[in-house]
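Reading group handout, session on sequence-to-structure problems. Before we discuss, look at one worked example. The prompt was deliberately terse, the way you'd type it at a terminal:

> structure Complex I intermediate-associated protein 30 (CIA30)

The input record follows.
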Amino acid sequence: MMREEVTIFDFNKTSNRKQWDLVNDEVMGGISMGLLQIDDDGNGVFSGHVSLENNGGFCLIKHDINRISVEKYSSFVIKLKGDGKNYAFRCKSGEHQRHTYSYSFKTTKDWQTIQIPFKEMEAVFRGDNLELPNYHGDFLAQIAFIIKNGVAEDFTLKIDSIKIV
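And the output record:
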């Protein structure tokens, strides 16, 4: 029996980009610049420039959701189009949780649908892997995308939808 998929966020022409928070490395003195826009096709476009100056090196967008139970599901399914660069998808299971669960993926320059098993998302805090169990998929309170490849680079990631199955 197929489990029903649930949409966590679906970008469209009426999406409010202010539902997503932008966190650039300026929180630690860096000067990277990222932004989120909605394009003419209704996709979320996370783009900008990662700089390594002043101990910088990342751009992140995050979306807080009212905490939901995801016990009946096992994976995120994300439709996106990248630029050939590496990104990570992250989530939190509680609004006050300090660490996130992260899964790195490489984009192609075409539309792709990536499936991210909950059990493959590793606990991280400020870029460091923690000796904690991987995401067990009980609750979901936040989703995020980050680019942090250790190089200065421009980036563009188009996002259509984030679902759970």
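Points for discussion. First: The chain has no helices and 13 strands. Second: The chain has a mean pLDDT of 94.
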